[in-house]
Amino acid sequence: MSTNSRPYIFVIVILLAIFGAYNYVVYNTDGYVTVEKLPPVAIKGQQLFQNNRCWSCHQLYGLGGYLGPDLTNVYSAEGKGPSYIKAFLNSGVKSMPQFNFLEEEKNALVEYLKKVDETGIYPNYEAEIEATGWVKLKYRNEK
Description:
Layout (H helix, E strand, L loop, with lengths): L5 H22 L12 H12 L7 E2 L2 E2 L17 H10 L11 H17 L8 E2 L5 E2 L7
Antiparallel strand pairs: 1-2, 3-4
Helix pairs in contact: 2-4, 3-4
């Protein structure tokens, strides 16, 4: 090994040490929030949402298709709620197909959208970026 390559090896070792320390701090701080598990009915609703490709037209938390509205807070929106959601699932509209869901399936989708609504606000104008790089969001179920 030549004497010219030693400074490069030293720089690489220092960069690897910084990278390791950074990862330790990021993944071992209180900034990481564990995900709350969904009840079985909501899981079935999530599976129906995915299997019927609802995300290709609708968004949750601002992610998804743009043909239909964002459904993050449809459960608690004024003038909407469970009956409103079920009505659209039954009848459809111009660009939304009429689904032939069983009552149990409609209830599962409503439960899933309820759980999404409880955890998210979209758009979330009160989000803050912390020094660690994590984004601190305001959740509906926080006091």
